[in-house]
Design goal:
The complex is a heterodimer of chains A (about 110) and B (about 110). Chain A has about 110 residues and is mainly β. In chain A, the strands form two sheets. In chain A, strands 2, 4, 5, 9, 10 and 11 form a six-stranded mixed beta sheet that branches. A five-stranded antiparallel beta sheet of chain A has the order 1-3-8-7-6, with no helix packed on it. In chain A, strand 4 and strand 5 form a beta hairpin. Chain A starts with a strand and ends with a strand. Chain B is about 0% helix and about 50% strand. Chain B starts with a strand and ends with a strand. The relative contact order of chain B is 0.34. The mean pLDDT of chain B is about 95. Classes of the chains: A mainly beta (about 110), B mainly beta (about 110). At the A-B interface, strand 4 and strand 9 of A face strand 5 and strand 10 of B.
């Protein structure tokens, strides 16, 4: 069973705090990892696609790292702002005929002014 | 990137009826996908729709319950048939040119079945 776990389920931080959350996955047959941000009533927005062990990606105040050998990725937000409030989704694609994204349940982030 | 719209954005339906959800992409794409997110659950792929061929359904989803059309490279519909309260979910479509490309999503259709 290909399972993608995200933790924590939800997170409340104050404006200006930095925060991070985790996506864990089976390390065998890894092909690619996608991070999405999903604000209520909007389309999920693609943040990063990561494929190589040790990859680090950055977009503004948001960055992500990938460890395919141990099966995890971290998403970091530096200096959180209220507009960062959203659900952050991790999705994995595995090799071996599984040409589809398998999503975690997401981490719901609320940033309070 | 592609911009994707869905109609309706939300609906409340009676048990036993059917609802067709439309998904429009602003450019031609090879692959379109339909997902469901039940309350408290992960986004789950229902089926993949390529133009000119039958949709490919994931385990647990069948064509009689979720018929899909893909008449051209910019449009697809998903019908939720003979609805029950368990079908209350957010339904999203997405698009990509290959299975490994980034998928671009619509804003979703929030369905409540009474």
């Amino acid at each position: 069973i290909l399972n993608v776990e995200q933790s924590p389920q939800s997170l409340h931080v104050q404006e200006g705090d930095s925060t991070n959350f985790t996506c864990s996955f089976p390390s065998s047959n890894f092909y690619a990892l996608h991070w999405y941000r999903w604000e209520t009533a909007k389309s999920p927005e693609a943040l990063f696609v990561m494929t190589l062990n040790g990859d680090e990606k950055k977009k503004g105040r948001i960055s992500a790292t990938l460890n395919t050998k141990e099966g995890y990725s971290y998403l970091y937000i530096k200096g959180s702002q209220p507009e960062d409030s959203a659900t952050y989704l991790c999705a994995l694609m595995f090799s071996g005929g599984y040409n589809k994204l398998i999503f975690g349940a997401g981490t719901r982030l609320a940033v309070h002014p | 990137s592609a911009v994707i719209s869905q109609k309706p954005s939300r609906d409340i339906c009676q048990r036993g009826t059917s609802l067709t959800i439309q998904c429009q992409v602003d450019s031609q794409v090879t692959m379109m996908f339909w997902y469901r997110q039940q309350p408290g659950q992960s986004l789950t792929l229902i089926a993949t729709a390529n133009q000119g061929s039958e949709a490919t359904y994931e385990s647990g989803f069948v064509i009689d319950k979720f018929p899909i059309s893909r008449p051209n490279l910019t449009f697809s519909t998903l019908t939720v048939s003979n609805m029950s309260p368990e079908d209350s979910s957010i339904y999203l479509c997405s698009a990509a040119d290959t299975p490994t490309d980034t998928q671009y999503f619509g804003p979703g259709t929030r369905l409540t079945v009474l």
